[in-house]
Amino acid sequence: MEGKQVTHLASNVHMAATSSLLLSSLLALLLLQPSPSTANEGNVLLTGDTLPTNGELSNSKAVFVIQNDCNLVLYNNGKGFASKTYEAGVNCTLSLNDRGQLLIKSSNGTLVWFTPRGPIGKYAAVLRPDGQVGIFGPLLWSTPEVWAMKRVVDPVKFSTAPSDKNLLFSSQLLNEGEKLQTRDYNFMVGKDCELALAKATGNSLLWGSRTKLKGDHCYVRLNYRGQLAVLNDFNNKLWVSGPPKQEGVHVLVLQINGAAAIYGPERWTTAAL
Ligand SMILES: *[C@@H]1O[C@H](CO)[C@@H](O)[C@H](O)[C@H]1NC(C)=O
Ligand SMILES: *[C@@H]1O[C@H](CO)[C@@H](O)[C@H](O)[C@H]1NC(C)=O
């Protein structure tokens, strides 16, 4: 919808005299600025987020949608999942609460379906690269959020989404020069050994591991205890995000709000059902 407005406005202004050309580009720039109103990572639902009726998570393998018949369905080439809540409510929405539960609610507020409860905290429901959905959490570590999330996720997807480049799972590495990416941010370990979170444009540094020049061919690994570490070529740990936690599969999400955050372990998944 925003895209349409921009085009409409741009074509109107372009028809006007050349004196307004500067104004036109200024307006276009302003309108094209990333705005919180399009807060949809495409493959992640965080605690506090709500998918509206017909809203979905999607990637190249699968679509996870809260349908207008109130059924929550994972379409994944025969390896799917359904909540079997067909017509159990009207205009149902899907949200993730601070107990790590996915909740289907009918528009009259009735709770229709929910997943098991975990300890209080922030969670992430992730459409994994293999096309299954997993609930990870609670939050173990995060860089500061750059802006506050909007609570209702816009069902309109980005043209560039979806990709899995915003996720790093336990046992996965980011080698020198490799990066996680979301719409506006990059998270990468450079040739200088610094793990840095930066704006995708302008390269302004938002957070760094302070391991600059402390090693050669440095890399980053997330382990099964929820620890993210920067290691050098001799596999020596130069920086670690925090103490070891419960063993299990964890995930680091580079969020649309500019935070890199570790959630885990995985507590529920469509794959197990
Ligand atoms: C809400 O809607 C559901 C399904 O339509 C219905 O079974 C339930 O009785 C309603 N609850 C209230 C409080 O209106
Ligand atoms: C459900 O959504 C439709 C379409 O937005 C709307 O026309 C209808 O009134 C809604 N029904 C309820 C019970 O909220």
UniProtKB/TrEMBL annotation:
The keyword Signal applies. SMART domains: B_lectin. Residues 36-148, 165-273 form the Bulb-type lectin domain. GO terms for biological process: response to other organism. Gene3D superfamilies: Bulb-type lectin domain (2.90.10.10). InterPro entries: Bulb-type_lectin_dom, Bulb-type_lectin_dom_sf. Keywords: Signal. The keyword Ubl conjugation does not apply. SUPFAM superfamilies: alpha-D-mannose-specific plant lectins (SSF51110). Residues 1-39 form the signal peptide. This is Bulb-type lectin domain-containing protein.
